[in-house]
Design a protein that fits this description.
Blueprint lengths: L2 H10 L11 E10 L8 E7 L10 E4 L4 E8 L3 E8 L2 E7 L6 E3 L1 E8 L10 E5 L5 E6 L5 E7 L4 E8 L2 E8 L7 E4 L10 E3 L7 E8 L2 E12 L5 E8 L5 E7 L2 E2 L3 E2 L3 E8 L4 E10 L3 E5 L3 E2 L2 E4 L9 E2 L3 E4 L8 E4 L8 E5 L17 H4 L2 H9 L1 H4 L3
Parallel strand pairs: 1-7, 8-14, 15-25, 16-26
Antiparallel strand pairs: 1-4, 2-3, 2-5, 5-6, 8-11, 9-10, 9-12, 12-13, 15-17, 16-17, 17-23, 18-22, 19-20, 19-23, 21-22, 24-30, 26-29, 27-30, 28-29
Length: about 375
């Protein structure tokens, strides 16, 4: 199971409950602590289905004689198990009704500026391999933090901020998590460190919807900071000349934006190696979707749901994906796109054959239909191979 799916599962634990509780089950496990004991520690189990939705209430117990048994848990294919030991929280996602914990590793690090000056009295959040926070600590007068009784051979992430800039580091117990030196480099405003990559089904998705005589468009871009320092500054999104912007958001939070010569700019901060999702909603007076690309992009898709794909004209750097059995036709980029490249799509005019009216999608990444998501499983990756 991928880390992103585990994180999603844990996020949904407190958000989604599915009606109809299944038969009761028991979840068991052992807990060992180096030079200590876990007796009395609290263990909480939450059942999930294969869609990472909660299928029953969380149930808690305590560790006794180095083991635990949580009874009357809804029978489920997945279980999120949380162990609270002293001031730390540990997590496991188990497919079988058992999860063991071994707390025998440590983590120590020193946070410093590039000139070696320690970063003192700064809050650092340590998160688990599956995403949720394990602990929050503060650096000492020498910039150091230290945690023990962690799980061995696990990757932990450290998150902190300095002068408004975000920083993220990954340390693995037993490998590089002892006396690690973490340098907090000054942030950059150079937008070239941001690359549209790793998106699903594409890193940059453009979704037009015909609403009467107006074309409404949602653009969603997944950007990664590929540099070695934080990015703090304006993210630019290229737009058609005739676009009237309705909103701009980062990770679903609407933000103020500024129109530019080629589109719009919205301020954001992004730690090295991390990703964000930027979204823009706008309308067009006509069906002409001609726009520049502002970031290196590994894959771009224009969703044509509700349009007659045979009547759509497009630039040569896009190709039509309308294969038999494909639930949603779309245009995809023939190759990666560089900053300054442009795409051109001419949609059928108002009242044209194959159009349908609809409201503006409210959440770009999730606005794609289940059929489109099926394409992710069935073939976007395959399409890129030729």
């Amino acid at each position: 199971m991928s880390r992103s799916l585990l994180t999603l599962a844990l996020a949904l634990v407190c958000l989604v409950t599915v009606s109809g509780v299944a038969a009761a089950a028991s979840v068991t496990g052992t807990v060992s602590v180096a030079n200590g004991t876990a007796d009395g520690d609290r263990v909480t189990v939450t059942p999930l289905n294969e869609n990472f939705e909660r299928v029953g209430q969380p149930v808690s117990t305590t560790v006794e004689n180095g083991s635990y048994r949580v009874t009357d848990v809804a029978d489920a294919p997945l279980y999120v198990v949380r162990l609270e030991h002293e001031d730390l929280s540990h997590y496991a996602v188990a497919r079988e009704p058992t999860a063991d914990f071994e707390l025998s590793a440590g983590l120590s690090a020193r946070l410093a500026r590039p000139d070696g000056t320690p970063v003192t009295n700064t809050s650092v959040t340590v998160t688990s391999p599956t995403g949720p926070p394990v602990a929050q600590v503060r650096t000492g007068s020498d910039g150091r933090i230290a945690l023990d009784q962690l799980q061995p051979n696990r990757s932990y992430r450290l998150h902190t901020r300095l002068s408004g800039a975000p920083y993220r580091f990954a340390l693995q117990t037993g490998t590089n998590a002892t006396d690690a030196r973490l340098t907090l480099r000054s942030p950059t405003t150079d937008e070239t460190v941001l690359t549209a990559t790793g998106g699903n089904p594409a890193s940059h998705i453009v979704q037009p919807v015909q609403n009467g005589s107006t074309t409404r468009v949602v653009e969603t871009i997944r950007l990664e900071n590929t540099g070695n320092r934080p990015f703090v500054g304006a993210i630019n999104v290229g737009l058609p000349d005739s676009a009237t912007v309705r909103s701009a958001s980062i990770e679903g939070q609407q933000l103020q934006y500024q129109r530019t010569a080629e589109g719009l700019a919205v301020n954001a901060s992004l730690a090295s190696g991390s990703t964000i999702r930027a979204s823009v909603q706008y309308t067009l007076d006509n069906g002409s979707l001609n726009k520049p690309v502002q970031h290196e992009t590994d894959s771009l898709a224009v969703v044509l749901q509700g349009f007659d794909s045979a009547a759509v004209e497009h630039s040569s750097n896009l190709r039509l994906r309308n294969a038999s059995g494909m639930p949603v036709p779309m245009l995809t980029s023939t190759d990666s796109l560089a900053p300054g490249d442009s795409i051109s799509v001419t949609l059928p005019g108002a009242g044209g054959q194959g159009q349908s009216s609809g409201s503006m999608p409210q959440f770009p990444a999730g606005a794609l239909t289940a059929g489109l998501l099926a394409v992710v499983v069935g073939g976007i990756a395959a399409y890129r191979t030729f």
